[in-house]
Amino acid sequence: METFLPSALDLARFQFAFVVVWHFLFPAFTIGLASYLAVLEALWLWTGRAVFLDTYRYWLKIFAVAFAMGVVSGLVMSYQFGTNWSVLSERAGPVIGPLMAYEVLTAFFLEAGFLGVMLFGMERVGKGLHMLATALVATGTFFSAFWILSANSWLHTPAGFELLSDGRFVPADWWAIIFNPSFPFRLAHTVTGAYLTTALIVGAVGAWHLLRERQGRRERHDAGMESVADPGWPGRSILEPGTGQPAAAQSRPGSAPTERGEEESEAGPNPRARLMFSMAMWMLLVVAPVQAVLGDLHGTNTFQHQPAKVAAMEGHFETERGAPSILFGIPDAAEERTRMQVAIPRLASLYLTHSWNGEVRGLKDIPRDHWPTNLPLVFFAFRVMVGLGLLMIALGLAGGVMRWRGRLYDTPWMLRWATLMGPAGLVAVTAGWIVTEAGRQPFTVYDHLRTADSVSPVAAPAVATSLAAFIVVYFVVFGAGIWYLLKLFRQTPKPHEGTPPKDQPIRTAGITPAPSVQAGSNPGPQPAE
Amino acid sequence: MPTDLSGWALWLPLVWAALIALAVLLYVCMDGFDLGIGILFPFMREKADRDVAVNSVAPVWDGNETWLVMGGGGLLAVFPLAYAVVLPALYMPLILMLLALVFRGVAFEMRFRAEGHRGQRWWDRAFSWGSMTAAFMQGIALGAFVQGIEVQGRAYAGGWWDWLTPFSVLTGVALVIGYGMLGACWLLWKTQGPLHRRAAALARPFALGTVAAIILVSAIMPFLQPAFAERWLTVPNIFYAAPVPLLVAIFVWRFFHALAQDTGQGGIADARPFLLALGLFVLSYVGLGISLWPMIVPPAFTIWQAAAPPASQKFVLVGAAVLIPVILTYTGYVYWLFRGKVTTETGYH
């Protein structure tokens, strides 16, 4: 019977992979989105232009939903270590536990506390304090990434500890623990990945609305409702002031310039969609190539500390000087070779050792019980990540060229491409996560504690039951949440986005942007003594 | 107190046990009332009432729940052995609690946004059942924890159904009723009109149920482990422990008095039942502490046996000493910002 059932270890591993991949989809998006919101609000305060505030409010609703899902799926993570990996927790807890405790103290409370203020609107706390709340939430997401990636990196490249005879890891040097060898690279690569993920989603939403609007214009034109041919709006970037018509002329009659700033020109394609698309394309143009460099640095660091992982990523079984870079192939652990190779000679040596003739260790020179347990998974996930990264760089360059030619907002093929690339960041981040985590198997604390020795003494049926429950609940709940997010993306970003009508209860509330409490100026029938 | 320890090794676990106990108490008090809102949903049929009730906790529930992460994360950092033994022992109830909290947390956002009557009903149910299940599983976990955890060496040695006993079911039910009481008292404070009267009417039976549960659990406790009986029922311990049940009696009396005097006029009078109900929770918690002290994994490990090395405890303590007061300050600020009654006018859309 045992032969048919997966072991408690396999089930626990799959459970962790399942809940952590689901979880990280949300922070991968919200880390960047929090910063984007802070930038939008700062730009609004600086320039007073309504388009920034409208775009801010559009994404704030989306942030609230995505953040809520990140919070509840993260709560699960903080208990997974104990429920399913109790031996790891007991032995490495004295080292990684404090890092996670700092994450709660510096990040989670900050985010949860100020999210309420951020969502509840400016009317109650004033612009300055509201900006501060947005900035604090963004800072919180960064602190969170800092501490959890420090703990994660320590498991990959443990440092600054002593190993006691009973198998426990005890801290010796906190600086060395926190800034362990792989941490700076992992932090830079992951946070940049999160920023790109957000940029791709924001860009896709902007592009999709530009496309849809264009389609609408064409249909109206075909129906004879618009007599003039598509004007095209060449090069009209709202980031370049002065290209629109005089703002005053655009103001509706009788509407004096308000504190929201002067009315934005509504001529041309939706200025909010243009803003999203334009900012996203700048971001890709600059940051996607930077990410490639960071990825290379991270890879070189991994090559020094976890050569087995790099050998699995590259599909190298033989140790070679001038090792080739295998573009495609099928790693076969049993035959100890990568079948059906398509390779570029010497390239791997060049980017791993920065020399044409550098020696690259292959799996055959690494003890078999140090090999990652699933070689094809590491190999293919790596190619998915790199492939998508190259597509991101290409999209950024295409955006740069089109902007230079003044056709950024009306090049249909590029808008379609950008729309399709929307989920590319999420996929790439997940693939990267799989590369690094499947690649450090069969260890939890690299070279010191094996995954098989880390698992909780919980019976397989218990792990199987909980795994089934996680799968059902996550697909139902987060499926509904993501479906709802997609519906929010479909909503056209409008002027006066999400502004409460005057003299109405204001918007508010922790995770929900639901109006709940009356405005500060009118605290209701409060103390009535 | 262990006699073979001195200095940091003696004091750090004491300080940390107090801090983690505080985090768990804050969690129980704060998430208790917002879980209570969900527990009371079956008694609130009107959509408008439900909206007001949910909106009254919407700005703060996320922060409230963070104390649960603090409790778990703190345990891993400074009492890793307790974390590694207790969590596998309470595997099923904890996982069910987490899943229930997932349902409920997302329902906060979705019940306002779902289109159509059916969608809203579905998310209302997710919110209500999620809240009840989370509370029930927390109570079960508490009962199973108090009854004792089977340990061999440095690991849990029991089965995966050990947590299910008549006593743990009792504590599970007790916590659902207790959170219901907190929820009712919170609504009594934060709402007005018909919902306020409804909350006052609900507070009474839930409080009676809570008092009955406190008496029942207290009566059973001494028979669970000999150490508990010795702690409560022998001289001179009985004199040190006696103030707790006496204070419970006084709080119960003041609570029903405050409830009887309720006018719904606003002001501090409306907050009184809620504060007294919190007082009952704090006293019950202190009572539990008296029974368990100094065990962190009853009956196997004391706080000193389960503690991480002083280097770990010191490192986090530096941060906690600075950050916990800061956290309490801005949490208080957010509560202050959202003060006052919540009304139907402030309903969604």
Written account of the structure:
Chain B: It is a multi-pass membrane protein. Chain B: The chain crosses the membrane at residues 15-44, 89-107, 127-149, 169-189, 201-221, 233-253, 274-296, 316-338. Chain B: Keywords: Cell membrane, Membrane, Transmembrane, Transmembrane helix. Chain B: It comes from Roseomonas populi. Chain B: This is Cytochrome d ubiquinol oxidase subunit II. The complex is a heterodimer of chains A (529) and B (349). Chain A has 529 residues and is mainly α. Chain A is built from 15 helices and eight strands. A two-stranded antiparallel ribbon of chain A has the order 1-2. A two-stranded antiparallel sheet of chain A has the order 3-6. In chain A, helix 1 packs across helix 14 and helix 7 (183-222) packs across helix 13. The radius of gyration of chain A is 26 Å and the shape is globular. The N and C termini of chain A lie far apart (73 Å). Chain B is mostly helical. Chain B has one domain (13-346). Helix content of chain B is 77%, strand content 3%. Chain B has helices spanning 8-39, 47-57, 61-78, 80-89, 91-110, 116-147, 166-190, 193-224, 226-233, 237-241, 243-260, 268-292, 303-306, 310-337; strands at residues 151-152, 155-156, 295-297, 301-302. The radius of gyration of chain B is 21 Å and the shape is globular. The mean pLDDT of chain B is 88. The chains are: A mainly alpha (529), B mainly alpha (349). Chains A and B meet through helix 2, helix 3 and helix 15 of A and helix 2, helix 3, helix 4, helix 5 and strand 2 of B.
